[in-house]
Amino acid sequence: MEGNKKIAGFLLAASGALTLLAGLGALRGIDRAASDLWYQSRSASDGDIVLVGIDQRALEEIGPYQQWGREVIAQAIQTLNQSEDCRPAVIGVDVLFAGETDEESDRWLAQAAGEYGNVVAACSAEIGSALVEDGDGGYRMDPFAVQSFDEPFEALKEAATQGHINAMLDTDGILRHHMLWLDLPDGRRVPSMALAAANLSREYWGMDPVEQPPTDGRGFWYVPFCGAPGDFDQSISVADVLSQRIPADFFADRIVLIGPYAAGLQDSYLTSIDHARPMYGVEFQANAIQALLWGEYKWEAADGVQLAVLFVLLVLGAFVFWRGRVAVSTGLWIALCGGWLLLCKALYSQGLVLHVLWVPVGATILYAACLAVNYVQAARERRLVREKFNHYVAPEIVDEILKQGTNFQALLEAGGKKTSVAVLFVDVRGFTTMSERLDDPEKVVPILNRYLTLIAQCILDNGGTLDKFIGDAAMAFWGAPVPQEDYVMNAVRAAADMAKGSEVLARELKREFGQSVSFGIGVHVGEAVVGNMGSPKHMDYTAIGDTVNTAARLEANAPGGTIYISRAVADCLEGRIAATSLGDAVKLKGKTEGFEVLTLDKILDQRQEGSH
């Protein structure tokens, strides 16, 4: 009981430790990567979003980007809006035009942006740690404070809708979340370019504003990407728009995003849909807009709830891993890992985002640890079983015990169970008299050892368990510690082998000492309690009960050279042995009238001896 409490405590502690590690972020890196791989997948967009890239071709035709005047984008906006009948629903310019430069260029850009009211101009904030008022007259450190804010120059700000273009990476440098709005120190809330563009386009299409996604306290929401880097690219360059190589009606009623699309412009990020290829900022805006238009948002489950579920699953798994068979433990491990992954996928499709690796990693660690500990413990118990039973059980029986995966601990601990066994007692008749007549007492031990060796060999050769030697007598049983198919016949064969072997020894003793001895043997079959019995410091694997006592009484009454068996033994081996009934002529102590005793005359069954 105490040992079980310790094991339970250990398993609870191990599950708690793994849960704590997950909560502290030990799995954050690999879990994020696995979640990205498991959740994010490409899907066809609606085709309502068109990218116009400030790409390498535009840089070659127009010149280096640093030399571009604002009139380039102004002209592009005018070209896209040139036809009243087929202008875009929205033109999002993913380029920040802060501060005034050339008056003519600024005026031109502001005029182009304000003419049709379909332009979203970029703004951006610098975010970092800063002391802010906490509302109670004190100050606190805010790690996510807006330290500065860059807006479009005044005329553009008044002419166009504003949308921030901040792309906030997670701590591993991957872009997974979109900041839906910026809360400025002056109390203003500025929407993202994606939100502004989505709402402006729905207004143009005669629809209600988008239903906003679930966000955390800072306005972040999980982006289910529909496109990988390059998926929104239709190879349309700003140069194509300016030269009108693309028909105006191609952009009609669509969301047009103009932004950097060249590596040298340094506006690209690794995203959750692809950790290898960078995605341009304008592509990220396209993904966010498409997600907002679809409205199929994802909600990241609270870590506290997930940690509670993790702990419960790990505890349940740990107890099965510890006590269950390898096949059961392996099946549960596969079910936990595979089932959790499938559950994550299913819940993701319903809008819930779970940590993909928390349960599989925790379950795998516990499974491997329990498997290793159980293996070491089982190896130790197997060694102890072999050491214990090799002394009085045939090697093949020990091998069978180990092969069947018997509960080794039960075999080694005190306790027993009722089982049907065949019990044999044997005693050396006349040995005491002979030893008293020998001149040299030291000769007695070698003679006795020869008899006891014969007894032990006959027992082990026939698959029996040598229980004990009692002076010049011995006890053995069949049917335990592992079940045997023909255990009664094996006991009788052992008795016959002892009787035959004793005749050879008797002749040798007759030649050497002038007298001989013989065996008295008794065999009975029935139920007995078999197991380890004794004190904690000294236990023997033995059998007790009336069956044992009856076998002992049969042996005590058997004359030298005679094998007494009970009617129960004779009935078990009917047709396989020849036996002579003595009726109730032999009175066994403690037995009522009518207990039938027989002498074993011959074994008729000629199958290979020692089979079991």
The pLDDT mean sits at: 89
Helix content: 40-55%
DSSP E strands, number: 22
* Assembly type: single chain
Q: What characterizes the major β-sheet?
A: 8 strands, mixed
Distinct helical segment count: 19
Q: pLDDT below 50 for ≥5 consecutive residues: which ranges?
A: 608-612
* Secondary structure category: alpha/beta
Return Rg in Å: 45 Å
Proportion of strand residues: 15-25%
- State the end-to-end CA separation: 37 Å
Global morphology: rod-shaped
Question: What labels describe this entry?
Answer:
single chain; 22 strands; six-stranded mixed sheet
Give the SSE layout.
Layout lengths: L1 H22 L4 H12 L9 E6 L1 H7 L8 H10 L9 E7 L6 H12 L4 E15 L5 E12 L3 H6 L1 E4 L12 E3 L1 E3 L5 E3 L1 H12 L15 E3 L15 H5 L12 E6 L7 E4 L2 E7 H14 L4 E2 L2 H21 L2 H24 L2 E2 L4 H32 L5 H9 L4 H5 L2 E15 L1 H7 L6 H18 L3 E6 L2 E6 L8 H27 L4 E18 L2 E7 L1 H12 L4 E5 H6 L4 E5 L15 E7 L9
Parallel strand pairs: 1-10, 2-3, 2-10, 3-5, 13-14, 18-20
Antiparallel strand pairs: 3-4, 6-9, 7-8, 11-12, 15-17, 15-18, 16-17, 18-19, 20-22, 21-22
Helix pairs in contact: 1-10, 4-5, 7-9, 10-11, 10-12, 11-12, 12-13, 16-17
Textual characterization of the structure:
This protein is an alpha/beta fold. The chain is built from 19 helices and 22 strands. The strands form six sheets. Strands 15, 16, 17, 18, 19, 20, 21 and 22 form an eight-stranded mixed beta sheet that branches. Strand 11 (268-271) and strand 12 form a beta hairpin. Helix 4 packs parallel to helix 5. The longest helix is centred in the middle third of the chain and has 32 residues, at 358-389. The two termini are 37 Å apart. The model is unreliable at 608-612 (pLDDT under 50).
